[in-house]
Amino acid sequence: MDYQNILNTIHSDMNYRDVGGKVASYIPELAKIDPRKFGMHLYCGENRHYGFGDSEEKFSIQSISKVFTLCMAMNIMGEDLWDRVDVEPSGNPFNSLTQLEQENGIPRNPFINAGALVISDILVDHLKNPKEELLAFVRKITGDSDINYDNTVASSEKSTGFRNIALVNYMKALGNIKCEVEPIVDFYFHQCSLAMSCRQLAKAFMIFANKGRILETGEEIMRPEVVKRINALMQTCGFYDEAGEFSFEVGLPGKSGVGGGIVAIHPERYSVAVWSPILNEKGNSELGMKALERLTTLTGVSVF
């Protein structure tokens, strides 16, 4: 498969002017991002990298980080994790509070904000220094030590993160949060501030295309049955209340973030990341979704 030629076609056919969304503004630092940014990177292993545009530039990965923290929590908790968070699509915005009271403080899935905050509570509860351990985890699966938190973004999130703080307090009142609120939200704001490029994200997500093993070393990070479940959650819940649309148009497991990034995997084939900060009304990168749809159309393969 001539992936570079396919990516070149996508690059030449698409432009930020073709979409009608806007850059995320509720986090002040994200509102400063140039809406013209557009990059894509595909990784097949064996040092086969293909990309274009701004694929080497770092950006705030935001909710894409929820996949990393879920991996860590599943390795700690095993099946007991699902007593505290469900695995169903939410059908509601990613920061909604409306379902929690009806469902006794159990979030619908680990990728909406409420679910990710429960995962943060687990990591804060079990790890001595969760921020350092998350950073070490991401650096290990990428083989890249040049990955860090963007403290300016983390501070910006904290200054406007009242709804996330409300979610933690509400779930604590309903008995599904163990730790104090401040360390939970501090960790959560930092995980969302992780700054990575499309190339780094494609490397990181290759473990989900490779049955939980780092491709270059063969080291097992997660058991294959854990990877199967994470991929299923990305397929059904990775795009908030637009997960069905992404499955219909693209046909790959993936995860988006309001920083404009999307990562998707084709098991045993490739991992691909795309970045365009203009978001649609659901909070997903509009140009990124179009680019991934073109990828699976031009290659003629998806998971379906």
TrEMBL record:
The keyword Aminoacyl-tRNA synthetase belongs to this UniProt entry's keyword annotation: no
Keywords, in A-Z order: Acetylation, Hydrolase
An example molecular function term from Gene Ontology annotations: glutaminase activity
Gene3D superfamilies, sorted: DD-peptidase/beta-lactamase superfamily (3.40.710.10)
Reaction catalyzed: L-glutamine + H2O = L-glutamate + NH4(+)
Residues the entry annotates as binding substrate: 63, 113, 157, 164, 188, 240, 258
UniProt key word Hydrolase: yes
Highest taxon of the lineage: Bacteria
Listed EC numbers: 3.5.1.2
Listed HAMAP family: Glutaminase
Assembly with partners or alone: Homotetramer.
UniProt record similarity statement: Belongs to the glutaminase family.
Protein name: Glutaminase
Primary gene name: glsA
